[in-house]
Amino acid sequence: MSAVGRCDLGKVRSHNEDSIYISENPETEFEYYIVADGMGGHNAGEIASRSAIQFFNEYIDSNCKINEGADILDAFIDAINYSNLKTFEMSEKDEKLNGMGTTFSAAAVCEDKLYVVHIGDSRVYIYDKYGFRQITRDHSFVMEMVRMGKLTPEEARVHPKRNMITRAVGIEKVMPADTIIQPIAEDSIILLCSDGLPTMVEDKDIEKILRKKIGLDKKADMLVELANKNGGYDNISVILADRRVDN
After folding, report:
1. Which of 69, 79, 153, 203 is the most exposed place for a label (fewest CB within 10 A)?
2. How far apart are CA 130 and CA 116, in angstroms?
3. pTM over the 0.90 mark
4. DSSP state, 121?
5. 3-state SS track over 126-144
6. What residues contact residue 104 under an 8 Å CB cut-off, 6+ apart?
7. CB distance 107 to 115 below 8 Å
């Protein structure tokens, strides 16, 4: 399994509120990846995304002895609950951090399955022989409107409230997460990203880049470059993980 990550400021924002993580633990039988997109005044968004990942990893490292794929999702649920509580407590203790929060999407690969926990509108996609598809569901105002039939997906991409999320790590003491177990083929590429990518680059154009016969590093660079070329209105985070050995 090969993985690369990019966390880019974009063209408009003055600071980067995104954080990413790619695991490098040879003692585990799985690898996992995280994208978090923070929100809050001053630098609270950056603190929220970075801290949420730190707390998640702290829980995994200290409390989890994962030997089988079946254990991963339970561990992820416990870890994100712990991370949410600790991030919430941080915001309660420091007035400057009041109201901070972050999206959080974590994905693990073990054998032939992908395990995901997800809060907010950072996304997880799969690209394989069946095409390119999003497997997470955005917790956002505009996507709720899409699900109710009041907006089309195209209208949602440019809606003025497209950045308004309905769930985030750290904004409440308890925050439910979506969970996914998804079979994946040997030739799958997994994409995790903050909303700075899909709001700037259409799915068909992301798929065109992933289809190219070039290395993961170049694909990640091209995705960020295209998001910036199209405006770069937000921070842009990308993690690509490829099950093929010949990257």
Report:
1. 153
2. 20
3. yes
4. S
5. EEECCEEEECCCCCEHHHH
6. 34, 35, 36, 52, 53, 56, 80, 83, 117, 118, 119, 120, 122, 169, 177
7. yes
At residue 12, the pLDDT reads 95
The DSSP 8-state label assigned to residue 169 in this structure reads: B
Angle at 194 between CA 180 and CA 10, to 5 degrees: 170
- Residue 80 three-state SS: helix
CA distance 176 to 81: 8
Query: What is the length of the chain?
Result: 247
DSSP per residue, 174-228: ----EEEEEE--TT-EEEEE-TTTTTTS-HHHHHHHHHSSS-HHHHHHHHHHHHH
**Residue 162 in contact with residue 76, Cβ under 8 Å?**
no
- pLDDT by residue (tens digit) across 174-222? 999 999 999 999 889 999 999 999 999 999 999 999 999 999 999 999 9
Q: Are 122 and 195 in contact (CB under 8 A)?
A: yes
Helix (H) or strand (E) holding 79: helix 69-93
Tokens of 57: 């990893």
Residue 59 in this model has a pLDDT that exceeds 80:
yes
Residue for token digits 């693990």?
A: 108
CA distance 35 to 39: 14
